[in-house]
Design goal:
This protein is α/β, with parallel strands linked by helices. It folds into three domains: 163 residues, FAD/NAD(P)-binding domain, CATH 3.50.50; 65 residues, no CATH class; 96 residues, no CATH class. Helices cover 38% and strands 19% of the residues. The protein has twelve helices and 13 strands. Strands 3-2-1-7 form a four-stranded parallel sheet, with helices on one face. Strands 4-5-6 form a three-stranded antiparallel sheet, with no helix packed on it. A two-stranded antiparallel sheet has the order 8-9. The longest helix has 21 residues.
């Protein structure tokens, strides 16, 4: 019998196990190590690490289904469970963004369902929660994992195969010195920050998460119909948050795009793989040329407006951000959100946005090179 170990019990292990079980494995002993007491959640969706107000940036329609889609799982929950998670099921669709903690509950439930499926199929999965793997060593007869058990003792086990799925690596010290945090996670530490004048380096999604966690710790978000307002605590006259941004840009709203994605004709995985295989010194420029040709094909008007036909990578990057850089960031964000909402309502796809979204993953393959 062969042996397989997973280090970490988050979504990466969950999806790998799901794919493995679909193949009907026989004669394999599977062990899952997880440093935390609960399995399946994953650090980005774990209570304590995330504030309940923090939203995930991935919707049900974008999450590969396991035993259920996220939306179907929510629809199967009891009213009491939904209320505890802060979910109004009547307002949820497969395109809605939900709190990260809700995704954690979903993945935790799916992990248990997967264990039940494995047991019925006769596949043994040994889950060792509370066991932290501290070392992995190549041995002549396999891979040795060194781990600490919940009682603090150190033990060793040998496996034929090991999958390292430890996920996010956070700084060992969140508070580098009093009042200076190197990371907003775990979010519970931010709740201890006093209501004072706070600066956040950056203005993108992580900065928004930080601002939301701090605001929730010192006030309340109140919804009245379609309007959402923030009410700071009565004793917080000095509570201010400043986002310090190098370019002065806020993140874009999520625009409507069809799923599954349509295939790319020019800048596709096969074309990028061919460029990578050539190992030419101008790989980035060659990849940009594929990007340019795809956009020229899909949205000629956008390509003309940004001068893409004649542009090199750097000038196009400047042209891409020019309208946002010229506007007040909050005025631009308000207009951007209104446009995104209108497009979602009418299921309208902005061609150039959709094309760039589809191309970013194939192009990312060149990064390790």
């Amino acid at each position: 019998m062969s042996s397989l170990a997973f280090v970490g019990a988050g979504p990466t292990t969950l999806y790998t196990l799901d794919a493995l079980l679909r193949q009907g494995p026989r004669g394999v002993r599977i062990t899952v190590f997880e440093a935390q007491a609960a399995v399946g959640l994953g650090t980005p969706y774990r209570p304590g690490w995330n504030d309940p107000a923090m939203l995930s940036n991935i919707a049900s329609a974008e999450i590969p289904p396991l035993t259920q889609t996220l939306l179907a799982w929510l629809q199967s929950r009891s009213p009491a469970e939904l209320e505890a998670m802060g979910v109004d099921i009547a307002a949820v669709s497969d395109r809605a963004f939900l709190p990260r903690l809700v995704l954690g509950r979903y993945f935790e439930s799916q992990f248990q369902s997967l264990l039940d499926t494995a047991a019925k199929a006769g596949v043994r999965i040994d889950v060792r929660a509370g066991c932290r793997v501290v070392d992995a060593v190549n041995r002549p007869d396999g891979l040795e994992l060194v781990f600490t058990s919940p009682d603090g003792k150190t033990a060793r086990s040998l496996f034929d195969h090991v999958v390292l799925a430890t996920g996010h690596q956070w700084p060992s010290r969140q508070e580098a010195r009093p009042g200076y945090y190197t990371s907003p996670w775990p979010a519970r530490a931010l709740a201890a920050a006093p209501p004072t004048d706070i600066g956040v380096r950056g203005s993108s999604l992580t900065a928004i998460d930080t601002a939301v966690a701090l605001a929730a710790a010192h006030g309340d978000f109140v919804r009245d119909g379609e309007a959402l307002t923030y009410r700071p605590g009565s004793a917080l006259p000095d509570f201010h948050i400043t986002l310090m941004s190098r370019k002065g840009l806020l993140p874009e709203a999520d625009f409507y795009f069809p799923l599954p994605h349509a295939p790319l004709a020019v800048c596709n995985p096969a074309a990028l793989a061919e460029l990578i295989d050539r190992r030419q010194p101008d790989l980035l420029d060659a990849a940009f040329d594929l990007f340019r040709r795809e956009l020229l094909r899909i949205d000629p008007a956008y390509a003309e407006a940004t001068g893409l036909a004649q542009a090199t990578l750097e000038p196009f990057g400047e042209a891409y951000f020019q309208a946002r850089a010229d506007a007040d960031p909050f005025v631009w964000a308000e207009a951007n959100l209104a446009e995104a909402r209108a497009n979602h309502a009418t299921k309208t796809t902005v061609s150039w946005r959709d094309a760039i979204l589809r191309m970013h993953e194939p192009i990312a393959a060149i990064v390790p090179i």
